[in-house]
Design brief:
Layout (H helix, E strand, L loop, with lengths): L3 E6 L4 E6 L14 E6 L2 H11 L4 E8 L2 H13 L2 E8 L4 E9 L2 E9 L11 H5 L1 E6 L12 H10 L3 E4 L13 H5 L4 E2 L3 H8 L4 H8 L5 E5 L5 E5 L3 E4 L12 H13 L5 H15 L12 H12 L1
Parallel strand pairs: 1-4, 1-8, 2-6, 4-5, 8-9, 9-10, 10-11
Antiparallel strand pairs: 2-3, 6-7, 11-12, 12-13
Helix pairs in contact: 1-2, 1-8, 6-7, 8-9, 9-10
């Protein structure tokens, strides 16, 4: 028996979410209707919410030894995530993202900070070996890890772990094909529809799906309120999303990842994984911040069960 269901390798950035805000203009002051200082980062949100719904999770990452870093680490610890794989470095600054949220759309402005300094040399292999699954989010922002992510995933597979990858947006918009080397060792690939088209360097989602599904065991394309497309060697299907009152969309895709992985690790069918992922995504948008709706375990379970059934 492994100690952990999953270990997440990724970034630790805080979010300042400004809600219902006009677009900024130079030399002008604009007013937001609400704000929330909250836990950010695709990888950290997935780890937090995966733990909140009942999985045993460890986290590997790097943060500055500062207020933002302490905030992120404490929030992971509070929900039960094993934080022994997190390195704090006083010479670094923990990054931050300002989220301008006008549901269902948002704009992000990020200072990457310490996340760029995480490298293969920082990986706690003992922690990895204690898990059944490895997940990595925000691939394109973790520039210190990018050259060695194929090695990370290949080694995890040798340890007997299954693997999953979410890329998020590439701020350079080059969408380099080095990621294909990672996909050879990826069991679950979890991009959204825009990302999939660009990663595949194709002109349409259908062409992107045809290309990418040949590279991974399971391709999962997130399409927001339209739901999800899932492809494997044995099946391919679309599943609509659940209706939700949208407060703010930060972390919806990361929460979907958490739900999908949670059921995948319990032997569920791909359709069961997708339904639970959709439910977690719908729950995420009901509160401000990626983890705002994932604070009370009993309430989380009741809301997800209500959506699914």
């Amino acid at each position: 028996m492994k100690k952990l269901d999953a270990v997440v390798v990724g970034e630790l950035n805080i979010d300042l979410v400004l809600w219902d805000v006009p677009f900024p203009e130079y030399e002008k002051e604009k007013l937001a209707r609400d704000m929330r200082f909250t836990m950010g980062s695709s990888s950290a949100i997935t780890a937090h919410n995966l733990c909140a719904i009942g999985s045993k999770v460890g986290f590997i990452g790097k943060a500055g030894k500062d207020t933002f870093g302490e905030y992120m680490i404490q929030h992971l610890k509070n929900v039960g995530v094993d934080i022994s794989g997190i390195i704090t470095d006083p010479s670094l600054k923990t990054g931050a993202t300002i989220v301008l949220a006008n549901p269902p759309r948002k704009a992000l402005l990020t200072y990457m900070g310490a996340m760029t300094q995480l490298s293969i040399d920082d990986i706690n292999w003992d922690l990895v070996s204690q898990a059944r699954h490895l997940h990595m989010g925000c691939y394109y922002l973790q520039t210190g890890m990018i050259p060695d992510v194929p090695k990370l995933f290949e080694t995890a597979k040798k340890y007997g772990l299954t693997t999953s990858l979410d890329t998020n947006w590439d701020p350079s918009e080059t969408w380099h094909e080095d990621i294909y080397k990672v996909l050879k060792f990826t069991d679950l690939f979890l991009p959204n529809d825009d990302e999939a088209i660009r990663i595949a360097h194709e002109s349409s989602l259908s062409k992107a799906i045809s290309k990418l599904k040949k590279m991974v065991k399971v391709l999962v394309i997130k399409k927001g309120k339209e739901g999800v497309t899932v492809c494997s060697d044995s099946e391919e299907f679309d599943l609509p999303g659940y209706r939700a009152e949208v407060v703010e969309t930060t972390g919806a895709g990361d929460s979907f990842n958490a739900g999908f992985i949670h059921i995948f690790l319990r032997g569920g069918s791909l359709s069961e994984c997708a339904r639970y992922g959709n439910a977690c995504g719908a729950l995420a948008v009901s509160a401000i911040g990626g983890t705002g709706a994932f604070q009370d375990h009993k309430l989380i379970k009741n809301k997800i069960d209500k959506l699914i059934h």
